[in-house]
Amino acid sequence: MMNRRVNLIAALMVLKLSSVWAQDLTTVEKVRTNPMHADHHANRSAQSERKRRNIKAGTESKPAAAKASEQIEATQDMDHGKMNHGSMPGMEQGDKSGTGDGSGHDIDHGGATSGKAGDMSSMNHGGGESMSMQGGSAPADARDPHAYSDGYDFGPIPRPKMGDEDNFGSLLADRLESVTTRGNTAMTYDWQAWYGQTYDRALIRAEGEIESGKFKDARNELLWAHAITAYLDTQLGVRYDTGKGTDRGWLAFGIQGLLPYWLYVEATAYANEQGRTAFRLETEYDLLLTQKLILQPRIEMNFYSRRDDTRDVSSGLSNIEAGLRLRYEVRREFAPYVGIEWASRFGSAANNIRAAGKDAEEARLVAGVRLWF
Question: Is residue 108 within 8 Å of residue 117, measured between CB atoms?
């Protein structure tokens, strides 16, 4: 409103000055052509000078043009930060009660003078009540943002699926190898298969050794895997041991996946109804010599709470296997390898093996293939 008044006064001043300048030019021309007009113009100038003196002395009022000029100069020097628009006539629209006292439109323009033109936190637009731009509770009849529009669904069209809702499956034979020791050759397998979705899947894991056509030691697990991070799963299920000695069943709980720095880990704890507990830890790391030639160190350890002589198991750390395998990936899904492995048993299991005339600690040459699809 104030800007409009200033613009209007400026326009009137321009028009007034234009007319005065035009009158002065006309007078000059008349003076040049008529000496009598020059005397008349001098008389008018004297009268104007006397009038200005009277105005300065306070005996006469200023003309409208002079008042307008002074208002413009006063407006330029005005501090808007101290202005209270509520005291102006005609500014009652900020009062919600409609009483017209204008007390509800107190605007603090101090932010403009302090350089923070965007700060309007001190503005009160009505009735002494604070104004909130957003927030608050949704109305009772607000539509659920997660519901379909107005209750419409996909009708006969199948509902779209997210990428993590599809079922997939995979089979990985991490070790399918021939193991050669002093005077003996056996076959070792270590494979796992899973089927399910990204976050939840069924997992079958099996590892064992076949010697002379018989299962010497076999561990079979059926697990439910749930992803807790992009690279790590928790697992819950059962384990069943067959082969040499007494068959045993276990309840299994553990984790499997990649730790920081791409260290693969399988860590699983077991318990059975006889009160026995066990813990198995396996770690692997792929060291890429080239894009196809990969050196893989591997360590596996087994711990048991009780000894089991029928299965060559001792309490505490029962056995450990550590080896290096060098594989060449003909394709990512097919990679033959060769390697060397050191294996040892401890405690009562080692004593039983030595009593049977065998070595509790041995070096192995391995050759096999790693494949998956």
Answer: no
Total number of residues shown for the chain: 373
pLDDT digits (tens, 9 = 90+) for 287-305: 999 999 999 999 999 999 9
Structure tokens at 198: 């990204």
Q: State pLDDT tens for residues 178-235.
A: 999 988 899 999 999 999 998 999 999 999 999 988 898 899 999 999 999 999 999 9
Domains of the chain in start order, with CATH, are 1-75 (no CATH), 168-372 (2.40.160.40)
Q: What is the pTM of this model?
A: 0.59
SS (H, E, C) the chain: CHHHHHHHHHHHHHHHHHHHHHHHHHHHHHHHHCHHHHHHHHHHHHHHHHHHHHHHHCCCCCCHHHHHHHHHHHHHCCCHHHCCHHHCCCCHHHCCCCCCCCCCCCCCCHHHHCCCCCCCCCCCCCCCCCCCCCCCCCCCCCCCCCCCHHHCCCCCCCCCCCHHHCCEEEEEEEEEEEEEECCEEEEEEEEEEEEECCCEEEEEEEEEEEECCEEEEEEEEEEEEEECCCCEEEEEEEEEEEECCCCEEEEEEEEEEEECCCEEEEEEEEECCCCCEEEEEEEECCEECCCCEEEEEEEEEEEECCCEHHHCECCEEEEEEEEEEEEECCECCEEEEEEEEEEEECHHHHHHHHHCCCCCEEEEEEEEEEEEC
Q: For tokens 């002093």, what's the residue?
A: 182
Q: How far is CA 85 from the centre of its chain?
A: 47
Taking only the tens place, the pLDDT of each residue in 321-336 is: 999 999 999 999 999 9
